[in-house]
Specification:
Layout lengths: L18 E5 L9 H17 L4 E4 L13 H11 L4 E8 L5 H14 L4 E6 L6 H8 L4 H6 L1 H13 L34 E5 L2 H10 L3 E3 L8 H11 L11 E9 L3 H19 L9 H6 L4 H11 L3 E3 L1 H15 L3 E5 L5 H14 L6
Parallel strand pairs: 1-2, 1-9, 2-3, 3-4, 4-5, 5-6, 6-7, 7-8, 7-9
Helix pairs in contact: 1-2, 1-13, 2-3, 3-6, 7-8, 9-11, 12-13
């Protein structure tokens, strides 16, 4: 079972806590999914070389501008291009999948990159209801979310290969996995992907606390719930074999640019993309030029202003100050940054500027 050493990390440079990366594998207008995946490799290499702690990808479906429908496949690709940085899902939406399949996928990833894999789990569909129904082959979507604790328990037992005698799954084994150590000549791997619970409300916060698991909160799209959820997680926490004390990570939208004006342009384009998504018109991430030409309605402008108020953006110094303030307000143990922009070069430059602002080491 994974323990503290595979979850807790040490801050680098002058950063208040460890810094990590959340990648949505965004596809900009005029670009392809191949371009987006190549950008992900470049960002992962930069993150590894500059001392970022983890690199997570998030499961989304039926969104043209987000090419991360298959986290396990992307993580295998990233594992082949990196050597040290932790890689994980932020997250896999467990109700969309059979627990055995996820245990097998992440057991395979662990075999590919021993000691570097995180398994972050969410209970939302990561898409609209119709797409979720197509994924799950059922229209009883609430049932999947309500069953999340049972699905989580089943997945954990597959990962640990410890179903009790008499259980219907006692003779079923997730491979690669611990069962291989019990075969003649078998050797037990010292690693098992640590499970993280992800959330944007109180449900997963409380569950993570009760189970003594690390918790990742989606501050980047649910900022109003961040402090209450983290408080609930800490209040609910019970020490476990995984963690002796709480460990909370928060996802943060943050974009640094050489000039404040350029950061504002890129953030506006990302916000227009969110406007279209929230109004049932998902598409590719528009260019800043398209966003500047767009005539926002009063309702759209209100949404953009609200959305961008939770995006830390500007020059490197402004972003550093914003991240420092967010850490003070939340007490998060780790900050996971997602830089949403149309252009690959802008995203790469953002992580580089943040690394420089905190004096993160150069590999």
């Amino acid at each position: 079972m994974a323990g503290n050493d595979e979850i807790r990390a040490t801050a680098q440079g002058t950063a208040p806590v460890p810094l990590s990366v959340l990648d949505l594998v965004t596809v900009g207008a005029g670009r392809t999914a191949t371009d987006a995946l190549r950008t992900s490799v470049k960002i992962a290499k930069l993150a590894e070389n500059r001392g970022f702690n983890r690199y997570w990808v998030a499961e989304h479906h039926s969104m043209p501008g987000v090419a991360s429908s298959s986290p396990a496949v992307i993580l295998a690709h990233l594992a082949a291009h990196t050597e040290r940085i932790r890689l994980g899902s932020g997250g896999v939406m467990l109700p969309n999948h059979a627990p055995l399949v996820i245990a097998e996928q992440f057991g395979t990833l662990e075999a590919m990159a021993p000691g570097r894999i995180d398994l972050g789990l969410g209970r939302a569909p990561g898409t609209d209801g119709a797409t979720a129904a197509a994924l799950r082959r059922t229209d009883r979507l609430n049932e999947g979310a309500d069953d999340f604790p049972q699905q989580l328990a089943e997945l954990t037992r597959f990962l640990d290969d410890d179903f009790p005698d008499g259980h219907p799954y006692a003779r079923i084994h997730a491979v690669p996995g611990p069962v291989q150590a019990t075969s003649p000549g078998g050797v037990q791997s010292p690693h098992r992907p640590p499970i993280w619970l992800l959330g944007s409300s109180g449900f997963s916060a409380r569950l993570a606390g009760v189970l003594g698991l690390p918790f990742a909160f989606a501050h980047h799209f649910s900022a109003q719930n961040t402090v209450p959820a983290l408080d609930l997680y800490r209040e609910s926490f019970k020490p476990s074999a995984v963690l002796s004390s709480p460990y909370a990570l928060i996802g943060v939208s943050a974009l640094a640019a050489d000039e404040e004006k350029e950061a504002r342009r890129q953030v506006l384009a990302a916000a227009l993309n969110m406007v279209r998504l929230r109004t049932g018109r998902p598409g590719l991430v528009p260019t800043p030029e398209e966003a500047e030409r767009h005539e926002f309605s009063s309702m759209e402008r209100e949404f953009v202003d609200s959305w961008n108020s939770n995006v830390i953006h500007g020059t490197a110094d402004e972003v550093r100050a914003g991240l420092d303030d967010l850490h003070k307000r939340t007490g998060a143990d780790e900050l996971m940054l997602t830089a949403n922009a149309h252009t690959a070069e802008i995203r790469l430059r953002s992580y580089e500027l943040v690394a420089d602002a905190y004096g993160l080491p150069q590999a």
